[in-house]
Amino acid sequence: MRQQIARFADALGVFERYVAAILMIAMTALYALNVIVRMILPTHASEFAWIDEASRYMLVWAVFLAAGLTLEIGRHVSVDLVHAHLGPRSARVLFSIIDVVGFVFSVGAAWYSLQLTLFVAGTGQISPTLGVPAYILYAAPFFGFISVAFRYLLRLANVRDARRTPVQAGWLGSGLA
Amino acid sequence: MIWLILGITAAMLFSGFEMFLVLGVPGYLISQAFFAGLPTTVLVQKMVGGINHDILLAIPFFMFAAEMMAGGRLAGLLGRSAQACFRRVRGGSGYAAVAGSMAFSAVSGSAPATVAALGRIMYPPLIQSGFSNPFSLGLIVSAAETALLIPPSISLIIYGWLTETSISRLFAAGLAIGVVLGLAFAVFVFVEVKRRGIDAVATFGKDAPRQVVTGTAWALGMPVVILGGIYSGIFTATEAAAVSVVYAVFVEGIVFRTLSLRKFMWIAQRTAVMTAVIFMLLALGSVIAYFVILAQLPQAVIALLHAVGAGPLLFLLIVNIVFLIAGMFIDPGTAQVILVPVLFPVAVSFGIDPVHFGMVVGLNVCIAMITPPFGLDIFVAASTLNKPVVEIIRGVGPFVTVNLIVLAFITYVPGIATFLPKLILGPG
Predict the structure, then answer these.
(1) Which of these, B315, B313, B295, B296, lies nearest to B305 by C-alpha position?
(2) Is A105–B60 a contact, with Cβ atoms under 8 angstroms apart?
(3) Predicted ipTM?
(4) How far apart are CA B151 and CA B170, in angstroms?
(5) What are the chain B neighbours of A81 within 8 Å (beta carbons)?
(6) Which pLDDT belongs to residue B84?
(7) Contacts of B12 in chain A (CB under 8 A)
(8) pLDDT (tens digit, 9 = 90+) per residue, B293-325?
(9) Which of A14, A31, A96, A99 to probe by mutation at the B interface, max B CB count within 10 Å?
(10) For B246, which of A79, B109, B132, B278 is 20 to 30 Å away at the CA?
(11) Nearest of B74, B106, B309, B110 to residue B211 by alpha carbon
């Protein structure tokens, strides 16, 4: 069971980071394309007005796609100076409290995001220039917080915990920035 | 009730909860305690609205470009050419560390990235020419701060977004202040060279190979594209950021051939993670900022300051002290997201120029990067140079003093900050 969960986490992580990376590349390319079009074919620039909105939607999705993975690899900012001074027992207690609070918060945030997504979907609202349903935007935090909640569970169950075993991976490189 | 929430927040902060929880949990508690009539979905709306903005797109774009250059050949070439420039000067490795960091700052907007990219190149020559270990570590960590001021600067973009101040004006002012800060560090190096009687002329960079020269030329093309593009009005800061990525791909991928498709994908993935780190703070910070405005906190601060007869000078002193203390314990991004919405309206009410105030905040963010116990640069340097954190903290002390002197000048001589933007863009 633990192994299957770990394998699922791996697959989810690969999915999240590849899709987030493709969104990063796509929004950069689109934005640069926008500049080029305006310089070469200024009369057609208005036909590309959707790029701004599309890039912002991609940004929001990239952020929430990567949020859970970022937790799994221990990269979210935290002031963890006390952790080095704790005994193994008190560390376990504190870590568990953090994970439970994080899990409950994330589930709550996912729930409210779902409600907003369904509400906006119900209104049939369409985004101004891109012309896609506006609820797509709010589905991002829904996905993101579910993924974050899952990572808190992994830590709580001690399947994956970057605080105990720092993650080393080729794609992360050696830099910390 | 508010004290209970503040207590919970402090407890969460110091026991090492993820910072987005330290922002998010109190945000939720405040909404339940004081704004019970508010539908909770509004919080999600504010959160998404807080990051759904085209100015903010510049942040991942600039990080993307900087990651490619830091991981490719450009960072090393810039460091080596800085060393070559100062090779005939006594204690030249010290000046090279400052100049190299400033040059890389024109490519990168993040101080930790600058430490990571240049630390290992700059450190050994410093030790070889006779600088003490703490001084060398302090210099590397502090010189990287200029990345937060010299454009592209991520913290100035965040400030511009929070206060609706023009990014091009902030970038122009940041350029001036970044150079001032760099010069202050150079003076400090000069003093150290005299004091220690360092006469080692560098053993590095005896002949500047052509490769270094061309490499530097390619690197300096980046600020030309970014600043030239913005100030000639060809594109916005966000567009400049996207173009800088294309430029980075071109230089590292086609000119130097250091960028494989696989490496490119890895860098894009890393950029996504770095973006998530900053944007989760911005998203949940927006919820707090929303309540700050609803509760009319800035108005309360203004009333309080007027009641005690405080003027702009005292207010700026308070701002600096608050940021200094906050910067010791929380990361600079969070400090900005929480403090700027409260303090900026107060600054405006005192007639302080938004660009000037931005530079005061920007320099405070720099100081926050190097002040213990929680200075991000310190930890990055510890890990890239493989040195104990305590050793770096000892070295950073005198540099904090240099920073505070510069901060005093910037705070009380607004002209240093506003001169360049007015020169380039006219009076705002």
Answers:
(1) B315
(2) no
(3) 0.95
(4) 9
(5) 16, 373-374
(6) 84
(7) 101
(8) 899 999 999 999 989 988 999 999 999 999 999
(9) A31
(10) B278
(11) B74
